[in-house]
């Protein structure tokens, strides 16, 4: 029996396509367990994808992940993990784009960096820096992943849909679009980005101290990777301790990644606005911590 919160979230995000996928999900899972010679080994928290712990035929642990194939995100994740090749991220063990399925290395013990913040925030930020250094390599020609600049379309779509200051101040969205475009135009490199790197997507592991999970996979400026780190973890929370940590996080990220502080501030601002745009596009209500981070960073922009 699938949790109601999971089925509801999939339906809201993917509509009829998602609901049709849910109807076939039990059979897909059964067939993949058979075809990949896997044994179920326990549940995992669900969001928009179905994930369970499994054991392979040789007894090694792994994670089986399924998503709506038509959405394309599972195929992008497979491409990204294949490129990373286990450097700073879990290994891709098998994939099936048609069935929207991945078999992944399990990061164990799997404690997220989110548990270190805010009490040990510099340690959490150091873990994120370590993973970014491991992940980032120049993007080869022809890698089938979207361009980071494609995300500019979200700003334009929002401004067209909402001509006024509701649900977000128009001037803030316009500034976010300008900053995003400028940072893309002045990119210091062109790398394969995780695309959704934050405290909840970096886990403790045995093969490396920390491994990233759940990449979205985009190509663009290295600085984009750190934007979401500034408003995480738990961006839905009303606890704004994170806002007071912004100066120390910016300094540590700038030093650790050799990225100018003004670019970190810019990407933090642009991504905070973009996060709120994604919320407004869906069924959520903007006004979460990313918006408060955007307002805190706004006066620091060049």
- What's the rounded overall pLDDT mean? 96
Query: Percent range for helical residues?
Result: 40-55%
Spatial arrangement of strands, main beta sheet: 1-2-3-5-4
The whole-angstrom Rg is: 19 Å
Uncertain runs with pLDDT below 50, 5 residues or more?
A: none
CATH homologous superfamily assignment of the largest domain: Aminoglycoside phosphotransferase (APH), C-terminal lobe
- Note the run of SSEs as H and E: HEEEHEEHHHEEEEHHH
Alpha carbon gap, first and last residue = 52 Å
Main beta sheet: 5 strands, antiparallel
**Structural category:** alpha+beta
Separate helix tally? 8
CATH topology of the largest domain: Aminoglycoside 3'-phosphotransferase, Chain: A, domain 2
Give me the CATH architecture of the largest domain, please.
Alpha-Beta Complex
DSSP strand content: 5-15%
Please describe what this structure looks like.
By secondary structure, the chain is α+β, with helices and mostly antiparallel strands. The chain is built from 8 helices and 9 strands. The chain has helices at residues 4-35, 73-84, 121-135, 152-161, 170-185, 241-257, 261-281, 289-297, and strands spanning 39-43, 50-55, 61-66, 92-96, 101-105, 191-193, 202-204, 210-212, 218-220. The strands form 3 sheets. The protein has a 5-stranded antiparallel β-sheet with strand order 1-2-3-5-4, sandwiched between helices. A two-stranded antiparallel sheet has the order 6-9. The chain has a two-stranded antiparallel ribbon with strand order 7-8. Strand 2 (50-55) and strand 3 (61-66) form a beta hairpin. The chain is globular and about 55 Å long.
